[in-house]
Design goal:
The chain is an alpha+beta fold. The chain contains eight helices and 18 strands. Helix 1 links the parallel strand 1 and strand 2.
């Protein structure tokens, strides 16, 4: 049965269709026979206590240079749709949080928002890992430079991460004698006002960072591993890393299933687990990527699995 799907995302004209996960999900939905609609999040509003947006019906043209056709925009209630796919990239700033509140205002509770506003708001992608203390590197959450210094003295080599960004942005590798330590920590914490995450550096990072997709608590064994180049410690594709085919080991599956069970319990339908060695470093829930690469490497269609799983919930 055809469903009406609203996709909330950054400007569609800016995406790379060869790599973009949202494009893969849209294409899979269209192939199944669902109707696609598009909304720029900047048009979201609440009128008469109902969420509205400037929304266009959209068609994906896989083989054409202009890969989409967008109809005229109209102001439409979000309650008109069966599924709302929330694919807005970080930063998770105030406006992002406000959008999650608006998504929670949809009065028709039969509508599935993926991922839900409350789950995006309640579970930070960096901090969610603290729910799995046995499966993460030694981690410190603080805004105190002295505490970070003690942590660095303990591990000699550490990673510093902001809490609200993506794609490897503003992630620093700090070693024991790094003369930039003071300026980096002062800048990242805004002189002690903002929390950041410090993690021990894992030597296995030089061998790559695995991305594992979870769909409604199901761990997808077929995955990829992102490998840093010689000039950067970060393995993210946006930071110049390369990517290779990877299949999870039995031990990795056991760890990921524990994480996936938590995610399903918290109503997080789609997620991307990041794993270095046997340690979980992040769990992406805002706009998990790498579905296109997994599809290509493993000859699978995770978009089809995504929508089939949703349809089975109806």
């Amino acid at each position: 049965m055809s469903k009406k799907i609203l996709v909330i995302m950054d400007p569609i004209e800016s995406i790379n269709v060869n790599k973009d996960t949202t494009y893969q999900l849209m294409l899979a939905a269209q192939n199944i026979g669902h109707e696609l609609y598009y909304m720029n999040p900047g048009t979201l509003s609440v009128d008469l206590c109902e969420p509205f947006g400037s929304i266009s019906k959209i068609k994906i043209n896989k083989e054409k240079e202009l890969f989409y056709e967008k109809a005229e925009e109209n102001k439409i209630q979000l309650s008109e749709f069966n599924y709302v796919l929330m694919r807005l990239d970080p930063p998770v700033d105030n406006n992002y949080i406000y959008i999650t509140y608006i998504l929670d205002m949809i009065k028709n509770k039969n509508i599935k928002v993926l991922n839900t506003g409350s789950s995006l708001r309640n579970y930070n992608e960096k901090l969610i890992t603290l729910n799995f203390p046995n499966h993460i590197p030694d981690t410190l959450l603080t805004c105190n430079k002295k505490e970070i210094h003690v942590f660095k003295e303990k591990h000699k080599k550490i990673i510093l991460k902001p809490l609200n960004l993506m794609g490897g942005k503003s992630i620093y590798l700090i070693d024991e004698f790094d003369k930039n330590f003071n300026v980096i920590t002062e800048d990242m914490t805004n002189s002690g006002k903002n929390y950041i995450l410090a993690q021990e550096y894992l030597p296995a990072a030089s061998m790559g960072d695995k991305r594992i997709i979870v769909i409604n608590g199901q761990v997808i064994e077929e995955s990829v591993i992102r490998i840093p180049n010689n000039n950067d410690h970060r393995s993210n594709l946006a930071s110049g890393g390369s990517i290779e085919k990877y299949n999870l080991t039995k031990d990795e599956m056991i760890i990921c299933k524990e994480v996936a069970s938590f995610l399903k319990e918290k109503d997080i339908f789609l997620a991307g687990i990041d794993m270095i060695g046997d340690k979980i470093t992040e769990v992406n829930i805002t706009s998990p990527t790498c579905i296109a690469e997994i599809n290509d490497f493993h000859n699978v269609d995770l978009g089809k699995i995504f929508w089939k799983t949703i349809n089975e919930l109806d």
